[in-house]
Amino acid sequence: MSGLPPLRDVIARHGLSASKALGQNFLFDEQLLDRIAAVPGDLAGRPVLEIGPGPGGLTRALLRAGAKVTAIERDARCLPALAELEEAFPGQLTVIEGDALDVDHDSLFDTPYAVVANLPYNVGTALLVDWLSAKAWPPAWTSLTLMFQREVADRIVAKEGSGTYGRLAVLAQWRSRASLAMKVHRSAFTPPPKVMSAIVHIEPTTMPEKVSPTILSRLTEAAFGQRRKMLRQSLKSVPGAIAALEAIGIEPTRRAETLSVADYVALAKELS
Ligand SMILES: C[S@@+](CC[C@H](N)C(=O)[O-])C[C@H]1O[C@@H](n2cnc3c(N)ncnc32)[C@H](O)[C@@H]1O
């Protein structure tokens, strides 16, 4: 949008040197930021939770798209730059200073909300696991649009048979649809990180009936914990699992990564 100063100027004016400890790699390319903000679909008038707005590059793009953004940022140095955005888009932005891992996100919204974030790797994965483990399904979030290291993005969307397929793929796909929305080159960030990135987009689907999330989690933990072993060995620690394999016609000589997400769901259902 016209009227906003270039992001590089905002950073210089507020002295926002990127902090390595906070995993800060900023995006300045406003066209790229607009493309990321378009991934969740039309955001006009919709509530959005943004984690880690930093100097506000992605925040601007979300505001331009008409979203009503609630943003949680840990680095107090960024707040003056974000306050300028609050002024430029009256009534559209609320900023909360704090650690996103400590905030109850659902309590910030009265209606379902989309999540959009460019986060440091470890925080992003921890939050992703929390969002995907929501007790109520469908959850309060309508979609997750998240930047990850390319290798983590691959693990989230992986299909059976691939080397990156594991617990994270099953968790992200058993009651959601997860797709790789966009690859982002490391040179798009300032400073550039060592590795490539990608945006993953996740939407909840119908939760399979009569499947205990706890049992599903226990199964994938045991199976992928010893992914090179045959299931008859790796699943020994889960009571009833070997019999359940046979009951649904899965050869116990197979290995964890050969079972599809649907196979794990069927197995968990048999045990639930
Ligand atoms: C990779 S930078 C992205 C900044 C900006 N969204 C962009 O795309 O240019 C990550 C941001 O997350 C913030 N951050 C890191 N850990 C956080 C946490 N636990 N809770 C909230 N924000 C966090 C950092 O301070 C930083 O502003």
TrEMBL record:
Gene Ontology annotations of biological process type: methylation
Presence of the UniProt keyword Transferase in the record: yes
Gene3D superfamilies, alphabetized: Ribosomal RNA adenine dimethylase-like, domain 2, Vaccinia Virus protein VP39
GO molecular function: methyltransferase activity
Localization of this protein: Cytoplasm
UniProt xrefs under Pfam families: RrnaAD (PF00398)
Keywords (A to Z) from UniProt: Cytoplasm, Methyltransferase, RNA-binding, rRNA processing, S-adenosyl-L-methionine, Transferase
Catalytic activity: adenosine(1518)/adenosine(1519) in 16S rRNA + 4 S-adenosyl-L-methionine = N(6)-dimethyladenosine(1518)/N(6)-dimethyladenosine(1519) in 16S rRNA + 4 S-adenosyl-L-homocysteine + 4 H(+)
Domain of life: Bacteria
EC top class named in words: transferase
Domain Ribosomal RNA adenine methylase transferase N-terminal as annotated: residue spans: 32-206
EC number from the UniProt entry: 2.1.1.182
Cross-referenced CDD domains: AdoMet_MTases
Binding site for S-adenosyl-L-methionine: N25, L27, G52, E73, D99, N118
PANTHER family according to UniProt: DIMETHYLADENOSINE TRANSFERASE (PTHR11727), DIMETHYLADENOSINE TRANSFERASE-RELATED (PTHR11727:SF7)
NCBIfam families to which the protein is assigned, alphabetical: ksgA
Family affiliation: Belongs to the class I-like SAM-binding methyltransferase superfamily. rRNA adenine N(6)-methyltransferase family. RsmA subfamily.
Function comment: Specifically dimethylates two adjacent adenosines (A1518 and A1519) in the loop of a conserved hairpin near the 3'-end of 16S rRNA in the 30S particle. May play a critical role in biogenesis of 30S subunits.
Protein known as: Ribosomal RNA small subunit methyltransferase A
Organism encoding this protein: Blastomonas marina
